[in-house]
Amino acid sequence: MVNQLRGMNERIQKLRQQSETQAPSISIERAVLVTEAYEKYWGKVSIPVLRALTFKHMMENKTICINDGELIVGERGEKPQSAPNYPELCCHTLEDLKIMNDREKIAFAVSEEVRKIQEEKIIPYWQGKSIREMIFNEMTQEWKDSYEGGIFTEFMEQRAPGHTVADDKIYKKGFIDFKKEIRDQLEGLDYYNDIEAYEKQEELKAMDICADAIIIFAKRHGDKAKALAEKEENPQRKRELEVIMEMCYHVPANAPRNFREALQSYWFVHLGVITELNTWDAFSPGRLDQHLYPFYKKDTEAGTLTYEEAKELLQCFWVKFNNQPAPPKVGITLQESGTYTDFANINIGGLKIDGSDGVNEISYMLLEVIDEMRLLQPSSNIQVSKKSPDYFIKKASEVIRRGWGQPSVFNADAVIEELLRQGKSIEDARCGGNSGCVETGAFGKESYILTGYFNLTKVLEITLNNGINPISGKMIGVETGAPEGFKSFDALMAAFKRQLQHFIDIKIRGNNIIEKLYANYMPSPFLSIVIDDCIKNARDYNAGGARYNTNYIQGVGIGSITDSLSAIKYHVFDKQTLPIEDLLETLKVNFVDRESIRQALLNKTPRYGNDDDYADSIMIEVFNSFYNAVNGRRSMRGGVYRINMLPTTCHVYFGSVLGATPDGRRAGLPLSEGISPVQGTDKKGPTAVIKSAAKMDHLKTGGTLLNQKFTPRLLEGDNGLKNLSYLIRAYFKMDGHHIQFNITDIATLKKAQENPEEYGDLIVRVAGYSDYFNNLNKGLQDEIIARTEHQNF
Amino acid sequence: MNKGTVFNIQKYSLHDGPGIRTTVFLKGCPLNCWWCHNPESKALAKQVTFTKKLCIGCESCLNRCENNAIDLSRENSIFDRGKCKRCGSCSEVCPTNAIKLLGKEMTVAEVVNEIEKDRVFYEESEGGVTFSGGEPLMQHDFLYQLLKKCKQKDLHTALDTSGFTDWHILEKAAKLTDLFLYDIKHMTNEKHLKFTGVSNAPILSNLQRLALVHSNIQIRLPIIPGINDDEENIVATGEFISAIGLRNVSILAYHHTGVDKYERIEEAYKLPNTLEPTHDEMQRIARILEAFRLIVRIGG
C-alpha cells in the first residue's frame, strides 16, 4: 500500500490534487456557443425551442474533456476548475472581468483571449438583453432603494432559479424513456379545447430536443474515450477507457445497468442542468445512498464490483463536483454568497419511502469517502431520524470531529413534518431532504427557489429612524412615528411590524415580476425533463411545471435583531436607565465617547442564546412577524411564499450596510449568522443555545441554520462522541431543523486570544471541566494551545 | 430556610457524574485546601470581586456606592473591605462586569427551575443534577430541600462532597442522593490538617458509615504533586477504599485553573510552583490503586 493517504489510492490522490491545485478560470466557450445559437434561431422559433436548440448546440459543440486517470467523466468547462459564463443571464462587462481576475478572494483567471472574445463577440450581442438588465429595468424605484439600501438581496438577478434536487427516476429510466413520455404528451394535446395547447406543444418539443442533446453529449464522451483507448499504451488504462466508452454509449440514453453507470448517468444530468443555465445551488443527487444501494447490492452479489471499487468510483465522483466552482458572481450577489462553492449537497441516511430507516451500507461508505476526500465540494449532510441507529450518528460524529465542518446534521423527522405542513404527500416528503445550505424540498418534484435574503435588523434601524435609511438619508420605509413618541415596547414592535410588511410587499411584488421574466424568456426545458410533473403538465420548471412550487425569503440576523430589541426593552422601557433619545444619539455617533453605554448594552442585556425567556420571547415575536408577513403569499407560478432562516455570507454584507445597533454592535460589523446567537454572547453553553434556538417554531420554516463551535478536546474519546449525539438528539426532539459543528483548531484559538470579543462563545475542555476560552487567563490559554497542538497528528 | 447562596449554576457539565448534567455550586466550605480551584466558593457570604483588565474607568461604581468603599486608584484592591457592605450595587452598574458579585441568594424554586431547563438533555443522556461547592452540605437545609424537590421531579442527583460534616446530616442527604462523588484528600491526619485546615477523621468515618447504607459511591482523589501523590499515601488510600468495600475511584490531576481567581478575591496562592502531574504519573497512580482491585478512572 504505497503512497496511501487517508485511504485514497494513487489515482484518487492525483485527481484530488489536480482538483485542489488548479486555479479557477473563466471559460468563454459556452458564451460563444449560446451567442451563435441565438444569432441563428432568435425570432425564428418559440422561446422554449430556442432555449432547447441553444442547449443542443452546446451539447454538440462543447469541448469534451476526459482527464487522465478518471473513471467518471465530463466537465462543465473545458477543463477542471474552468467556469463558463452565462451572458443571457448576466453579461459581464470588461470591468467585471478585470475585477474577477484581480480580486483577492474568489478570483477567476481571465485570459487575454477570453477578454477579447467577451469584448468583440459577447458584449455586442448581449448588452441590454440579459435577464439581469431586464430585471433591473422592470423594478420600481422603491424596489431599487430597498435593494441598494441592503434591505434584501435578489437571487435571480444573475443566476437562474434551479435550486432543486434529483430523485430516483434517472436510475430507473433513460432519456429514451423520457422521450417516449414527452411524445405521448404531445400526441395527447387537445388543440380544440385547451387554450394552452400551443405553449404546451412548444415546451414539449423543447424537452424532446434537450433529451436528444444530452444523449449526443454522452455519445461524444464515448467517442472521445474510444479515440483515447485506441492510442493508450497502458493496458489497464486502455481497458478503463473502453469501459467509459461503453458507459457513455449506454447512459443516460438508457437506464443505468450497474453502480458505475448510475454515477455516470447522474453526472451527465448534473452537467446538463448546470450548463443549460447557471442554476444556483447547482444540482444534487439527493439520496445518493438509497439510489445507489440496489446497484451496489446487485453488482457485489454478482461479483462484478468490490467494496473498494465502489468507493474508488465514489471518490472519482466527488472530484467531479469539486472540479466545478460556482460561476463567477458580481455585485451584491457576490457579497451574499462569497464562495467558490456551488452548494451541491449530498443527503445520507434519513427514511425510505415506506417510512423505514434509510441507512444502508452505502451510507457508511459515503461517510468514509467524505472523511478521506476532505473536499469542499460536494457538501454533505446526515439526515437523522428517530429511527436512525446511534451507530450511524457515531460514525458521522467521528468525521465531524475532524474539524473541517462536514457533514452537517439534519432532523429528518422535522424535515418531513415541514414538507407535510406545506401539503406534500407523505411519500414525497419522505423522499425529500435538504439542499444548498439547509433548505427543505421534495426531491425530484419541487421547484423551491430562494428569492433573496432579508435584513431584519435593517428594518429595525429604519423603524428607529421613522422610515428613513440613516446611511443614505433617503426615505425608503413608511412613517411610523419618531421613536421618541413610542410610549411602550409594544408601540415600537407595532411600528416594526408595519415597516416589515412594507418591505416584504416590495420584495414579493418584485419577485412576482422576476418569476414571469424567467417563465417567459428563460425556460429550462432540460431541467424540466427530470422534475415531476413538468412533462405531465407540459409546463416548464420555471413556469410552475413542477408538482410543488415554493418561493422562500430567507431571514438573516435573528440574533442581532432579538438582542437589539431586548436591549431597548430592558434599558429603555423596563429599567428606564437609558432614555431613547440617548440611545438613538449613541447609535448615531457609533458609540464614540460612549463606551460605557456600549458596554452596558453588550453585557447587561438579556440575550438570545442563553435560554432566557426575556430575550427568547422577543425572538419568537420577530420570527412570527416575519412568518406572518410572508408565509402563504401567492407566487406567480402557482406556488406560495414561505420563510427560512439562513445567511450564507449575507450576514456580513447586511452588517456592512447597517449603522450601530442597540445590542452594542458597532456600525458595519457582521450580524449574527443563521439562527445562532450574536457571536460571543451565548454564555451558558451549548444546551442553553439549543434550548433558545428550539423556541423558534422550526416546522413553520423551510430550513434554519444553527452553528456550534467546539474545540477538539470536547469531542475526545467515545464519551465526546456520545455527548455530541446527545446534543443532536435532544435538539431534534425539540424539532430543531439543523445543526452543524465547528471543531476549532489551534489557529482559531490563537486568533481567539488576540480578539477575545469575537470568540466569546468558544468552548474549551480545560481539565476536569469545560469552560469558555475567554474565561481563562493567558497562561492557561497558552497551555491549552500547546496541549491542543499535541492532539493534531 | 428557603433560600441559599449559590455561586454558579453550570450547564452542560460533563464530568460530575453520568451524562449531561447541571452542576449547582453552593457557596461555603469548611475546608481550606491549598490547591482549591474554586477559592471564591470558600466563604459562605457573598463577595465582590474585581477584574482589572475589564475595567474601562467609567466610574459608574464610584457614583453608585453608598459606603464610599471604592477607590479605583488603589493598586491591589479597589475595595475598602472595612467599608464595603457586600451589597453588590456596584456590580449592578458596572457595564463591563469587571466588578462581579459572587454568590446569589436563590430560592429552592428558582434553583430547581434553572435545573429543569435542561431536562431534555438529562433524559437523552441519562444525566441529571450535581450539587457541588464549596461544600454543599454547609447549607444542608437548603440542599436537603433541593434534593427532595429534584427527587420528586425524578431527576438523577449527585452530591460532590468532602464528607466533612456531621454523620446525621450526611445520612439525611444520602436518602435523596443517587450518586456520591466523595473526596479523599489525604490519609495522614497531620498532613490533612496542614493542607486542608481540618482533620480527616470525620471524613473517613463518615465514608465508612456511608458505604454501609449507600450503594453508589464514587471516590475522587485529587492528585497534588508533592502533597498526596507519594506511594505511601496512595497505597494507604487504596487499602482504605478497598477495606470498606468500595470499588470505583476517579483520580483527578491537579491543575492551575484556579490561579487567577485568587488574584480576584485578593488571596495568596499557596502552590505557585506545583506542576500538573504528567499522564505517566497518573498512570502510575492508577496502577497502584488497581492492585487493590479498584476500578480506576483518570479524570472525572
Topology:
The complex is a heterodimer of chains A (793) and B (300).
Chain A: H1 10-21, E1 25-27, H2 29-41, H3 47-61, E2 82-84, H4 94-102, H5 112-126, H6 131-138, H7 141-149, H8 169-172, H9 175-187, H10 197-231, H11 235-250, H12 259-276, H13 288-302, H14 307-322, H15 331-336, E3 345-349, H16 361-373, E4 379-384, H17 390-401, E5 408-411, H18 412-421, H19 426-430, E6 433-435, E7 439-441, E8 446-455, H20 456-463, E9 468-469, E10 474-475, H21 489-521, H22 525-530, H23 534-537, E11 548-556, H24 558-574, H25 580-588, H26 595-603, H27 613-630, E12 640-644, H28 650-656, H29 686-694, E13 707-710, H30 717-733, E14 738-743, H31 746-754, E15 763-765, E16 770-772, H32 778-791
Parallel strand pairs in A: 1-2, 3-4, 4-5, 8-11, 11-12, 13-14
Antiparallel strand pairs in A: 5-14, 6-7, 9-10, 15-16
Helix pairs in contact in A: 1-14, 2-3, 3-10, 6-21, 9-10, 10-11, 12-14, 13-16, 14-16, 16-17, 17-30, 20-21, 21-27, 24-27, 31-32
Chain B: E1 3-13, E2 21-26, E3 47-50, H1 60-64, H2 89-93, E4 99-102, E5 104-107, H3 108-116, H4 119-125, E6 128-132, H5 140-152, E7 156-161, H6 167-174, E8 179-183, H7 189-196, H8 201-213, E9 217-223, H9 231-243, E10 248-253, H10 259-264, H11 279-290, E11 295-298
Parallel strand pairs in B: 2-6, 6-7, 7-8, 8-9, 9-10, 10-11
Antiparallel strand pairs in B: 1-2, 1-5, 3-4
